[in-house]
Q: What sequence folds into this?
């Protein structure tokens, strides 16, 4: 079986500087096998995920650039593929995208259409000499739509329950890699906000109570869940979202012996 991969999501820059992104990458590099770079995160403008993914590669890391369908038309998406190839970025996570701050979104390009464009325009002779693109999609704990079966990997929704993850994984028929979603709940306030805004991300009451008693408990819960996912042998890896607690998360994973295990399996 291939080594278990830990893909850490970084907070994308909302200002024209890469200092904070570089710091996150540097802190998490000892425990991460790769980095996911969000795209216009939470409906706010950010530095291009392709540009930040290029920076990750320049620092010696593996990057997956998130591309959301919300802000693109076909021509713009083809521009992104050309830019990515020029920068040597060849892995994407294709998502529907959060609601923009304006409340309005463009529906010119769907996730289905982005997949079609990568498999057609992205494999045309324009890209001769470049590595083939690898694409991933996201999934709730539901059957995977047929058009997503053409993806190379799947990032599952964030969950706080290994049992829920395993039930869904057992029902999934997909030939590519599958990554479990784990999020650090940084505070009780964050937990309550997530629960109010998104039913899929609702934090169980017992976890909220633990974090209210100990603000560091959210990091421990997430890292313990990552370890449980790895031990289950049901997933190819985990997509870990440390949010602002990336320093504490890296330290906790190192205390769990994560770098040592990673070096042993490679």
A:
């Amino acid at each position: 079986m291939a080594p278990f991969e830990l893909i850490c999501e970084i907070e994308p820059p909302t200002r024209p500087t890469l200092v904070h992104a570089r710091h996150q990458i540097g802190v998490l590099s000892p425990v991460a096998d790769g980095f996911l770079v969000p795209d216009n995160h939470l409906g706010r403008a950010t530095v291009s995920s392709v540009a930040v993914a290029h920076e990750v590669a320049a620092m010696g890391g593996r990057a997956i650039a998130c591309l959301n369908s919300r802000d693109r038309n076909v021509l713009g998406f083809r521009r992104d593929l050309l830019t990515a190839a020029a920068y040597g970025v060849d892995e994407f996570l294709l998502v529907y995208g959060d609601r923009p701050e304006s409340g309005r979104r463009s529906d010119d390009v769907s996730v289905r259409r982005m997949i079609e464009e990568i498999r057609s325009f992205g494999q045309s002779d324009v890209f001769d000499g470049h590595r083939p693109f690898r694409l991933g999609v996201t999934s709730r704990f539901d059957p995977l739509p047929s058009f997503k079966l053409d993806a190379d990997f799947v990032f599952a929704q964030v969950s706080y329950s290994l049992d829920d993850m395993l039930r869904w994984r057992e029902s999934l028929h997909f030939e590519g890699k599958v990554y479990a979603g784990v999020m650090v709940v940084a505070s009780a306030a964050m937990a309550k906000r997530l629960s109010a805004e998104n039913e899929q991300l609702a934090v169980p009451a017992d976890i909220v109570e633990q974090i209210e008693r100990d603000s560091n408990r959210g990091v421990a819960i997430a890292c313990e869940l990552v370890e449980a996912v790895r031990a289950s042998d049901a997933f190819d890896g985990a997509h870990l979202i440390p949010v602002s607690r990336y320093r504490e998360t890296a330290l906790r994973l190192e205390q769990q012996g994560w770098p040592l295990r990673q070096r042993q399996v490679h």
Observations:
- The mean pLDDT is 91.
- The chain has one domain: 5-265.
- Residues 4 and 230 are 7 Å apart (CA to CA).
